[in-house]
Design goal:
It is a single chain. The protein has about 160 residues and is of the alpha+beta class. The chain has one domain: Alpha-D-Glucose-1,6-Bisphosphate, Chain A, domain 4. The chain contains 3 helices and 7 strands, in the order βααββββββα. Strand 4 and strand 5 form a beta hairpin. The longest helix has 25 residues. The chain is globular.
């Protein structure tokens, strides 16, 4: 059987409420605590979202990371946001990412699925994004469970797994 490099799914239990997990993905204030140096969300109507307001389907974003020249800007669009436990967005040009929060056996599980990885770039995107998401989902868990931010924020230190 040939491997499928067009998508991957990652799961991690997070000892936090579903609401806190959702807000960590769906607000600029939340997502900047564990993932990004800056997150600007623009409402579908054209105005900027307040940092504490949840995104909605049709919103656009401009994300920047620590540890990359100029923040390595990533533009995209919010594809779905149900206000409770599911959010989806474009990522890495052609890909889609869907985040779901499930309760399994009394534990909240964050499930990330990245799909639509293009066939001509799938190994680079597959391995680059999956390893990046593994770190950032671990950092999400660290922030929500204990408050320790594992990201490298020193731009002089490069080629490390936490930037």
């Amino acid at each position: 059987m040939k491997p499928d490099w067009s998508s991957f799914t990652l799961r991690i239990p997070v000892n936090s409420s579903i609401e806190s997990i959702y807000n960590a993905w769906s607000t600029s204030a939340g997502i900047e605590k564990w993932f990004l140096a800056s997150a600007e969300f623009t409402a579908a109507g054209g105005g900027p979202r307040d940092p504490h307001d949840n995104v909605q389907a049709g919103d656009t974003y401009l994300w920047k990371w620590f540890g990359w020249p100029g923040g390595s800007p990533e533009p995209g669009k919010i594809l779905e946001a149900n206000g409770r436990d599911r959010i989806g967005f474009t990522f890495a040009k052609t890909c889609t990412v869907t985040i779901s929060v499930l309760n399994e056996d009394g534990q909240n599980i964050v499930v990330l699925k990245q799909a639509n990885i293009p066939p001509d770039e799938n190994l680079g995107i597959y391995f680059g994004c999956s390893s990046g998401w593994i770190f950032y989902m671990t950092n999400l868990k660290s922030i929500l469970e204990g408050g320790i931010d594992l990201r490298n924020k020193d731009e002089k230190i490069v080629s490390v797994i936490n930037a």
